UniProtKB/TrEMBL annotation:
InterPro entries for the chain: AmpC-like, Beta-lactam-related, Beta-lactam/transpept-like, TPR-like_helical_dom_sf, TPR_2, TPR_rpt
Name of this chain's protein: CubicO group peptidase, beta-lactamase class C family
Keyword Metal-binding (UniProt): no
Membrane-spanning parts: none
Residues annotated as domain Beta-lactamase-related: 26-321
TPR repeat extents: 414-447
Keywords, in A-Z order: Repeat, Signal, TPR repeat
Organism, scientific name: Chitinophaga eiseniae
Lineage: superkingdom: Bacteria
Signal sequence extent: 1-19
């Protein structure tokens, strides 16, 4: 009798979870389709919760013509997230004893100037090498990039003393993998990473001629060319992307120790080989990485303790994938959520140069009455970004007016007070800067930037 009761209890619990997931999936589907109708999302979505895929869809066009619908089998470029393959590859070779992170670049890439004797492989992984970015105007191939590096007279800074996130570091990581393994980087990725992870649909360096390849385009329906000066970019489907994420979380390719090395960046607000995240002991508890390439944009947000993963990929970048993820997370957690819309700041393009702050706020209120359904006037982001536009154009007084107004709209946001503090700091008003940075820190105790500036101002 007790066994039967326990069995019925388990069945009831499972049914309850399934019903809740069905309701959540329906809400997410409604939100995603409305975002598409509003013109703020064209792409593919996969959501897993409690280690089960609860939602997967493709919505919109696969190319600029609009005549080919996306499917869940379409591959997308994922921008910087594809750098995970070379970072993981380096750590795989390190675990095999084939290289050390303290090895100098000159050991593996011959012909470079003497600065290569001061850069370690770890510097490349942490983007602290001092290498300048690739010359995108003239570089058309790997050979061009290597030629430019061989003729680079000096670094931007001493290796390890600063941070510069750029693809020169990625390029050399891939060349080191080739030198150590004796095989092309693309072959290494296919044989040592994609195949072991069961990623059968992924493709490295695809072209427009390859089937089921999404082509990115802008809002004027102008397509991007699938050409990259650096080779070695892996394009993935939703299912393969999820397999890759799960392989990272389960340590299929790397040990927890080696994963930690490329999950944690060199410092706050910086990127690591896996983007960023957090571990507790030998378990990943958070992994977040975003990537952009022209009008491709992708976001991975993984929460292993919840068995939750959100994957978003678009071929019509709108800069709102984090906003979409926030809505998805809220729906999954049963919390209130906001429908992603177009950013209201888009309505101000070309207008701010002729408006002062008061005129801008008047126009903001007018446009809000007209376009509240299609554009986001309810978050702090639009006015904050407009404030930074003024600040970047040395209109500090106008920026302060905008930021002040935003703090009245969002008095619980540490971010808006941080922005106002920055504007006063630029103006030279240390008293007001200090007051607003202190307010920001009180609202957001994790604001390390505010802590540093408060310490400086209080001296």
């Amino acid at each position: 009798m007790k066994i039967v009761s326990l069995f019925l209890l388990l069945i009831t619990a499972v049914s309850g979870v399934t019903a809740a997931q069905s309701r959540q999936a329906a809400l997410i589907d409604s939100m995603v389709h409305r975002a598409h109708r509003l013109g703020v999302f064209n792409g593919n979505v996969l959501i897993a919760d409690h280690r089960k895929v609860v939602y997967k869809t493709a919505i919109g066009a696969a190319d600029a013509t609009g005549s080919v619908p996306l499917t869940v089998q379409h591959r997308f470029h994922i921008g910087s997230i594809a750098k995970e393959f070379n970072a993981v590859g380096i750590m795989m070779l390190k675990a095999q004893g084939k290289l050390s992170l303290d090895d100098k670049v000159s050991r593996y890439v011959p012909g470079l100037p003497s600065w290569a004797d001061s850069i370690t492989i770890l510097h490349l992984l942490q983007y602290t090498s001092g290498l300048p970015d690739i010359n995108w105007k003239t570089a058309k191939s790997d050979a061009d990039i290597l030629h430019d590096l061989k003729n680079l007279p000096q670094l931007m800074f001493r290796p390890g003393s600063n941070y510069a996130y750029n693809n020169a570091n990625v390029f050399l990581q891939r060349r080191i993998i080739e030198q150590v393994t004796g095989m092309p980087f693309n072959t290494f990725v296919e044989k040592q990473q994609l195949q072991p992870c069961g990623m059968t649909a992924s493709m490295i360096d695809p072209t427009e001629k390859d089937s089921l390849m999404a082509i990115a385009f802008n809002d004027d329906r102008k397509p991007d060319a699938l050409f990259y000066p650096i080779s070695g970019w892996t394009a993935v489907t939703l299912d393969d992307f999820y397999k890759w994420s799960e392989s990272i979380n389960s340590f299929r390719l790397l040990s927890p120790e080696d994963t930690r090395t490329i999950l944690y960046p060199a410092g706050p607000n910086k990127q690591a080989g896996l983007g960023g995240g957090e571990m507790k002991g030998d378990h990943i508890i958070r992994h977040i990485h975003d990537g952009s390439s022209l009008h491709f944009n992708a976001l991975l947000v993984s929460d292993p303790p919840k068995g939750r993963t959100v994957i978003l990929m678009t071929n019509n970048k709108q800069g709102n994938l984090y906003e979409l993820n926030t809505a998805i997370q809220a729906i999954l957690d049963g919390k209130p959520w906001q429908q992603p819309r177009k950013s209201a700041e888009q309505l101000f393009k070309g207008k701010l140069d002729t408006l002062n702050a008061q005129q801008c706020l008047a126009l903001f209120q007018q446009l809000k009455k007209q376009y509240a359904e299609q554009y986001d006037f309810d978050s702090e982001a639009p006015l904050n970004n407009i404030g930074y536009y003024y600040l970047g154009h040395n209109q500090t007084a106008d920026a302060i007016v905008i930021f002040e107004y935003n703090t009245r709209l969002f008095p619980s946001s540490g971010n808006v007070f941080d922005s106002l503090g920055e504007a006063y700091y630029k103006k030279g008003d240390k008293q007001q800067a200090l007051a607003n940075y202190k307010r920001s820190l009180a609202l957001d105790p994790g604001n390390t930037n505010a802590k540093m500036i408060i310490a400086e101002l209080e001296k």
